[in-house]
Each structure stands twice: as structure tokens, then as C-alpha cells.
């Protein structure tokens, strides 16, 4: 197994001045979506351990729980810890009376920001993302309100998540976008066609969520057997029985290469993401100390161009069975927001 490096490198995320640890920590699973919430005290210890190890870029959202993950981080950041981290959270997905709603109207943007500041117990948010794009509100209107929040000092940098290339361009024209968060892993590579080149053209940093395929490249198909009924992955097409058998072959090949290289399959898969460029910051999530340490070890796994190409061939287009989200969640995908018209005033 590759040993964890002594220190985690730092990187510039985007071209607006934000500096973060070269690997972040996704905090969602501590509180939501991947089974029952984990013991609060244990998760606070894990966050503190991560920061001490040099992983200072922490990722959350108001929808995780909802709200409970931000509250957890708020407790973890007390006592002078806040000054040591780069804090990212998100808005845009609302659950009202059990109904999911995507919102980007100015009043909602501002109320969401105020709520996150309160739960996190901070004066400002380092990186504030629009989690999903509201297709009923021109992106210029949403970004216009975020621009005001930057001017007021409540947020430092603006990000987008799961946005289309055209939306990214339109948003960036209103106010510089610092980072775009997207799913990027060995088996989720559709962003490479349009989104990644757009970000690079505009000098926007790339934050890769689920870089371990939602745990698949850690445990392989046996992961499916351990999922609780409260786990989102139970409903993801790639984890369904009809697809797991085919996807298991991908894991077996990755695992075989990892054995040859003397590392774990998760370290190999994470090292592949790191190898994509110095503008890419993966944010693997975990709730276990041993997995966190293992993920850090990915930073010391070196890949040759031939190894990168071989890895990519294992999960090439057509090799992966099943979509990355259930069909109902496909409505989250941003194809385009409506054009700005006289009926919308961002000023």
C-alpha cells in the first residue's frame, strides 16, 4: 500500500486567488444520503484529523440532511479551527413538504446564504456553489445576487455544480466563476467532452466529486451488499443487479493493476483523477479514519502515460453499465437556463 505523504500539497483553484489543499474532503456521507447519520463526535474528530493532516478544503451543502451536515461542520470549526480551512457549501436544492425544488431566484439565494452562514457559525463562506441550476431563472439573475453577496463580504468566491458549458460561460460573464464541481472518475468521464475544456479556457478550477465512483473503486461489487435501505446508492443504476456484474469486471481490472503497483484500487482510481491536471481537486468523502488515510496515500501514487491509458481503457465509453443518477434525478441536469429578458431584473 502506498504510504500517506507527510504533507498535502497546496493548489490554486481557479484564477481568482483561492488556494486550497490539493485534495479535499467531501462531508456529505457523515450526515446524509449514504445511510444513517454517523456519530457526531466521531465525525468532528475525523474533520479535525483531516485538517491536521493538511486536508483543509471542506465540502458540504445545505441540502445534506438537510442542514445537519452544515451544523456538524459548524461545531467542528469552533475554537479557532475556522481560520485553518477553505470552506465550500452549496445552495439551490430545496425540500418543501417532501417535494424537491430547484431554485435560483435572488430572494432564495440570499436566504440560503444567510442560513448557511448561521449553521456554519462563520462570517463568510470561501466558495459558494449553485448546487443545481434553476431552469426557470436566467443564470445572470442568480449570479447577479451572488455578486452582491461577494461585495458584501458574505462569500469570497462563486462556484457552479452540474452546469452546462453554455451556462458556465454566461455566468462567468457576469462575475468570474472560481470553480465548477462535477462528477469525474474513471467511470464518469462525460465532462471531458465539453465541460472540462470550457473551464480550462476560462481559467475556472475543477472540483471532482465522487472520484471513487461513490465507493465502487474502494470495495467493488461487494459494496452493494453492504448498503442500507437509507443509502442513495441503492437507487443508482450502476449499482443495480443487472449492471453490477458487468461493472465488476472494471473493478477487477483496476484491482489487478493496483496489486501490480503495490497500492489499493481506491488509491489507483484517485491517483488517476489527480493525474488529470493541476487545476483539478478531487474531494473524496469518507466517514472512516482508515479510509481517509488510504485516500491520502493516493497523492504518492505515480502513473506513467501508458498506465493512465490502460486505466482509461478499462472504463471506456460503452464499458460502464448504467447511468450515474436515477432517471428522476436526470431532471437536475442543466441543458440551458432561459435567456435574460426584461421580465428579470438582476440589479
UniProtKB/TrEMBL annotation:
The keyword Ribosomal protein does not apply. SUPFAM superfamilies: NAD(P)-linked oxidoreductase. Pfam families: Aldo_ket_red (PF00248). InterPro entries: AKR, Aldo-Keto_reductase, NAD(P)_OxRdtase_dom_sf, NADP_OxRdtase_dom. Keywords: NADP, Oxidoreductase. GO terms for cellular component: cytoplasm. PANTHER family: AFLATOXIN B1 ALDEHYDE REDUCTASE (PTHR43625), ALDO-KETO REDUCTASE YAKC [NADP(+)] (PTHR43625:SF40). This is NADP-dependent oxidoreductase domain-containing protein. It comes from Paspalum vaginatum (seashore paspalum).
Amino acid at each position: 500500500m502506498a504510504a500517506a505523504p507527510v504533507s498535502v500539497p497546496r493548489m490554486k483553484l481557479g484564477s481568482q486567488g483561492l488556494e486550497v489543499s490539493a485534495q479535499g474532503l467531501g462531508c456529505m456521507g457523515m450526515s446524509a444520503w449514504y445511510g444513517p447519520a454517523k456519530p457526531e463526535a466521531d465525525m468532528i474528530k475525523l474533520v479535525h484529523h483531516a485538517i491536521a493532516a493538511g486536508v483543509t478544503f471542506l465540502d458540504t451543502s445545505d441540502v445534506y440532511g438537510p442542514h445537519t451536515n452544515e451544523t456538524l461542520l459548524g461545531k467542528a470549526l469552533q475554537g479557532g479551527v475556522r481560520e485553518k480551512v477553505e470552506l465550500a457549501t452549496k445552495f439551490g436544492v430545496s425540500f418543501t413538504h417532501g417535494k424537491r425544488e430547484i431554485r435560483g431566484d435572488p430572494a432564495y439565494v440570499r436566504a440560503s446564504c444567510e442560513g448557511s452562514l448561521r449553521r456554519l457559525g462563520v462570517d463568510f463562506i470561501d466558495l459558494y456553489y449553485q448546487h443545481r441550476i434553476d431552469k426557470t431563472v436566467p443564470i445572470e439573475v442568480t449570479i447577479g445576487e451572488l455578486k452582491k453577496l461577494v461585495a458584501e463580504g458574505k462569500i469570497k468566491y462563486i462556484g457552479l455544480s452540474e452546469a452546462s458549458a453554455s451556462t458556465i460561460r454566461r455566468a462567468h460573464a457576469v462575475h468570474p466563476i472560481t470553480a465548477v464541481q462535477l462528477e469525474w472518475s474513471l467511470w464518469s468521464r462525460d465532462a471531458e467532452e465539453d465541460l472540462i475544456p470550457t473551464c480550462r479556457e476560462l481559467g475556472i478550477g475543477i472540483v471532482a466529486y465522487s472520484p471513487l465512483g461513490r465507493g465502487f473503486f474502494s470495495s467493488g461489487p461487494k459494496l452493494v451488499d453492504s448498503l442500507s435501505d437509507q443509502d442513495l446508492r441503492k437507487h443508482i443504476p450502476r449499482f443495480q443487479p443487472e449492471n453490477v456484474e458487468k461493472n465488476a469486471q472494471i473493478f477487477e481490472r483496476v484491482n489487478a493493476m493496483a496489486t501490480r503497483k503495490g497500492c489499493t484500487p481506491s488509491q489507483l482510481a484517485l491517483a488517476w483523477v489527480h493525474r488529470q491536471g493541476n487545476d483539478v481537486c478531487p474531494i473524496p468523502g469518507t466517514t472512516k479514519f482508515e479510509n481517509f488515510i488510504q485516500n491520502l496515500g493516493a497523492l504518492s501514487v505515480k502513473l506513467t502515460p501508458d498506465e493512465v491509458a490502460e486505466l482509461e481503457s478499462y472504463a471506456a465509453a460503452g464499458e460502464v453499465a448504467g447511468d450515474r443518477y436515477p432517471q428522476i434525478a436526470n431532471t437536475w441536469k442543466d441543458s440551458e437556463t432561459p435567456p435574460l429578458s426584461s421580465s428579470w431584473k438582476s440589479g
